[in-house]
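[Solved] Which block belongs to which protein?

Original post:
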Amino acid sequence: MILSDIKRYLSERGQATLADMALHFQSSPDAVRGMLEVWAGKGKVRRHLTDPSCGSSCSKCDPASVEIYEWIGEGTADKIRVIQPPGDC
């Protein structure tokens, strides 16, 4: 897995969960997160926050499954949106 692989994957899909990317790249969520942080630092990727309790309060969701990243290409990564978790979460 290299930075260009992450770029291609996210730019084709628009957005994806950390868990999906870790599965796709057969890597740990922490390793993928590290690569995403490089792109975020360059203003190319934005991390979306779900409800703060999602993934921690009921323990039904894997925290990596509610950590969502979006490819934004040009621009800044300083705007963070809060998105709603799935209805069953």
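(Second protein starts here: sequence line, then its structure tokens.)
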Amino acid sequence: MKIPSLRKLLRNPLFVNTLVGGVIGAALGSTGVFWPWFLGGLALGALLGWGGDRLLRRVMPDEKWVLRRLLIIVLFEALLVVYGVIPIYNAAQIAYPQRQAVFQTPADFGMTYEDVTVTTRDGVKLVGWYIPSKNRAAVLALHGASSSRMQPLNHAAALASQGYGVLLLDMRGHGESGGTTYLSYDNSADVQAGVAFLRSRVDVSPERVGGLGLSLGGMAVLQGAAKEPALKAVMADGAALTRVDDYYPLTGTYQALFFMVPMMWVHDWAMSEMCGQAPSSMVENVAQIAPRPVLLVAAGAGDEPYMAWKMAAGQANVTVWELPNSQHTLGLYTDTEAYKKRMLEFFDKTLLAAQNP
């Protein structure tokens, strides 16, 4: 059988559309972590190009529509990626996080600590460290997504230097803890287990327990505080909104984000399917914490401040601290002294007050 020349193949619309689809799919797939994403993108893109051309030929049979058929296929692939692949991929990354090895301990930061394990109400064992309290107050410190209890070690060192006890836990599915998925962004069970541990300590007053969270950990302490009144104060650094309805009504320059609504819907659906329940509303969670004090730390000048102010809207107990020159959860390193001062002042005022013996 004679093999067609490359010039002849490039004049064949079916071949061109299949080739272009494959190239686009491979390029998008190469952004994934593992090489199978490249092969999967190549195969899916080529299939979409071939199938799209065959289908469009039925409604656009004239050869003068060749270029338009190609543009339609490319546009369809782009929309499929933006409104399908990306939100589902992000949901999978959240629902099935990569574990980070734990290779540092509080001893590396000059702190005396205990290895601890706590069990959540649904039976998941969480591994952590506890730095004993010297001032009768303690803070539960939680890390971000695909991280571990090492992430808040510098925060813990600053708190411990002022006498605070600190419990650093690997959340479920992270570090050395059990579990494999989040509960649709809702780690309140992990928070409640940590709070119960701190309240059981003889060196901690049950009325002097606070929470500090970074990114996903910030969302977790907010969700936990909504369900656990024993958490008396919450500092959430880099917490994000989790549901499409939390973003609305859009205000200011964010009114242009209406095109992201389908992406958010697909993301919410994917999280519900992967985790068994829909994401809880962060706006509603924050509202349920009142009148207990909340400090929301928002880095940069884009999404984080917008989301923080959405959560804080109408809540007199919520303070937003913007760090425009910092990046996500890096405020402690961007302006170390100012961050430590604000963090310690917040917990001093809320946990060491006279009304909390």
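Accepted answer:
You had them paired correctly. Confirming on the second one: The longest helix spans residues 66-95.
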